[in-house]
Amino acid sequence: MRIGYACIPLGVDWSTNRKISLKNFSNEKFLKITKLNLEDLKKILEYNVKNNIYLFRISSDIIPFGSHSVNNILWQKIFKNELENIGVFIKKNKIRVSMHPGQYTVLNSPSQEIVKRAIKDIEYHTQFLDSLSVDYSHKIVIHLGGRYNDKIESIKRFIKNFKMLSESAKKRLVIENDEKIFNFDDVLYVSYVLNIPIIFDYFHHLINPVDRNLREILSLAKETWKKEDGNIKIHYSEQSHIRKLGSHSEFIQTAKFLEFYNTIKRFDPDIMLETKDKNISAIKCICLISNNKNKLYNEWEKYKYLVMEKSYNLYEECSQILNTTHDAKKFYNKIDTALVSPFNEENFKNTLFHVWDYLVL
């Protein structure tokens, strides 16, 4: 089982989604930005390995205007060495990477022009993963698309248009249930017809459910993953406590994640976390299932002043846990309580004074 996150780690200086505006696009700018993006991708992967994160979603913006007509640069050849080196690192460390085209990549649209652009975008993502020389367990994730007033016809269009993809793209593509239109049973049907794997998105399922329990769903989903597809992969997130329904949470809550984990761990899935705090929650969830004492100390260094400014009592309780039981569940439950606690001006001032005294000394 791997646990990972999407695209942009927090608390580091690396980025793989630098962009160029269309009006300012030039070969020189493209080459400069692409080089920086690839260099930072390698650094992010190295950071992930140091933190026991072996699942990662690569940003679609890694190659600026990767599928746009303005970009006719042979980036696969120009950056062949860099791409192959990244691929070697991925394979050596048994990392699993994926990509997820955006909401405008709609393969089941009634518009042939939109479908044409969607195919081009999927092929770009395929070319990028192929350029790393990684096997077909490294996937491209998409939704089925829109309803367009007729759900059944929209499913038929997806099936028809899927067949227009290259063989490599067909082997890389996996489909995910969404929160509005196509539920798990819908993607299961398409999976059976096209013989492609399903990404089960737990959060989407909570909003757009089917009449099956979680174990039945995971059992059916796992059957869609063939040996060459790699281990079953799922998406996990929670509802934000401050945003509208369907918004991903700011962080993963300890109790909810462990309840989910204990239900699905028998299926040994790779779990992609879709949450606002990215790598922070990935490390948290890894600590929760491994209870790594040394890692808890490292993570406390990142959290402690945030906890202190919310509640000094919680700060002391966290410190006590680390100095006695090293219980990751209790530790992160205290962190969760602090994260959802309201701003306290007096605690905030006291924390500033504490940090100031520490710096002066």
TrEMBL record:
InterPro entries reported for this sequence: UvdE (IPR004601), Xyl_isomerase-like_sf (IPR036237)
Keywords recorded for this protein, A-Z: DNA damage, DNA excision, DNA repair, Endonuclease, Hydrolase, Nuclease
GO BP terms in the entry: nucleotide-excision repair; response to UV
Gene3D superfamilies the record matches: Divalent-metal-dependent TIM barrel enzymes
A Pfam family assignment: UvdE
Keyword Electron transport listed: no
GO molecular function: endonuclease activity; hydrolase activity
Database matches in NCBIfam families: uvde
Protein name: UV-damage endonuclease
Organism: Caloramator fervidus
